[in-house]
């Protein structure tokens, strides 16, 4: 903790970590090409300072006065300045993209969402195993993909965190049934001599689709959520309709 420090004409070229600065004065200082990790400025004055190429994590400015200061190519966005007074302050070329604050509460949420998504696959597997024979493989695949498309589309109407997590869990549960159906159809549709090749092609296509999906979505998610949602919805609807054209393999003797 630093209290009432006064720093003039200093070049900060080293990272700042786990610090609290209270009632400090920073006059004509330069913060260039550094990382600020868990840094808090409270009731401080920044005058004629220069911030450039800054990466920050869990860093905030609270009740500070910032005068004639330039922020260039930083991720110090508006929400990181709490009750601050800005006078002749300029922000240029702010860093773009999704930013993740590494705070404990967010870590717990990330693992919780991942855990719930994985746990939701279990009832999907159980339901598909119980009904794949009664409903049929083709209907399981097509219906599951169409319901998954609906889960993607309803993200447009979801503005709360809990609703998005619920849709994710539902998507994981329903899509698991489609995967199970595809694997059963693949086994029953191809003879043993070709079955391993069929699974290999299926897995290769899945990996390729995952790479393309991540690349495409990453380029659009910072611009608008509409394009990734519509692409997912369209792909799932098309896949579900095509799946309904597959031959029914029930009661078929394996070769």
UniProtKB/TrEMBL annotation:
Subcellular location, record wording: Membrane
Top-level taxon of the source organism: Eukaryota
InterPro entries per UniProt: LD_SV2, MFS, MFS_trans_sf
Keyword line: Membrane, Transmembrane, Transmembrane helix, Transport
Residue ranges of domain SV2A/B/C luminal in the record: 1-91
Recorded topology in the membrane: Multi-pass membrane protein
Positions of transmembrane segments: 109-131, 138-157, 163-185, 197-220, 226-246
Chief location: membrane
Name of protein: SV2A/B/C luminal domain-containing protein
Species whose genome carries this gene: Characodon lateralis
């Amino acid at each position: 903790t630093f209290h009432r420090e006064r720093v003039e004409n200093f070049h900060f070229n080293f990272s700042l970590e786990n610090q609290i600065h209270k009632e400090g004065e920073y006059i004509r200082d330069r913060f260039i090409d550094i990382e600020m990790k868990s840094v808090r400025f409270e009731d401080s004055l920044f005058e004629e300072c220069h911030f450039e190429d800054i990466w920050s994590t869990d860093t905030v400015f609270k009740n500070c006065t910032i005068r004639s200061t330039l922020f260039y190519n930083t991720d110090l966005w508006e929400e990181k300045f709490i009750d601050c007074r800005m006078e002749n302050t300029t922000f240029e070329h702010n860093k773009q993209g999704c930013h993740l604050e590494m705070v404990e509460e967010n870590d717990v949420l990330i693992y919780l969402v991942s855990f719930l998504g994985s746990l939701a696959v279990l009832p999907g597997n159980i339901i598909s195993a119980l009904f794949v024979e009664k409903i049929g493989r083709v209907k399981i695949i097509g219906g599951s993909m169409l319901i998954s498309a609906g889960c993607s589309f309803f993200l447009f109407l979801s503005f709360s965190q809990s609703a998005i997590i619920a849709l994710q869990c539902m998507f994981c549960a329903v899509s698991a049934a489609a995967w199970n159906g595809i694997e059963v159809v693949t086994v029953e549709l191809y003879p043993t001599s070709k079955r391993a090749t069929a699974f290999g092609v299926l897995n290769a296509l899945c990996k390729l689709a995952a790479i393309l999906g991540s690349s495409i979505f990453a380029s659009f998610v910072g611009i608008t959520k509409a394009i990734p949602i519509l692409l997912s919805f369209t792909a799932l609807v098309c896949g579900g309709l095509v799946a309904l054209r597959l031959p029914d393999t029930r009661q078929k003797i394996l070769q």
